[in-house]
Amino acid sequence: MSMATIHISDADACRDFAGVLARVRAGVEVVIEDAASPAVVLRTAVESPLRRLSESLRLAKEHGSTVTLDGDFAHDLEGVINSHPEPLENPWA
Question: Which residues are within 8 A (CB) of 41 and not within 5 positions of it... i.e. 6 or more apart?
Fold first, then answer.
């Protein structure tokens, strides 16, 4: 399903930015133009593909997994995190 798109001037966007955000939240893509060239495109954010551990455990249980986390899981996870000292790239930043 394609998203509706509206084009507005930067002056109109500044005049009623709350209204622009309301349209975006309603699922409309808003293209803010300056001198007829697109300057900014606003649309709702795509839901993060990341999953919480609790969600992963729930899904594993629903699919019949018999794997259990032992008492050292937190320690093992901390070791994995510490083995990667440089910051991980955030694809949403």
Answer: 29, 30, 31, 32
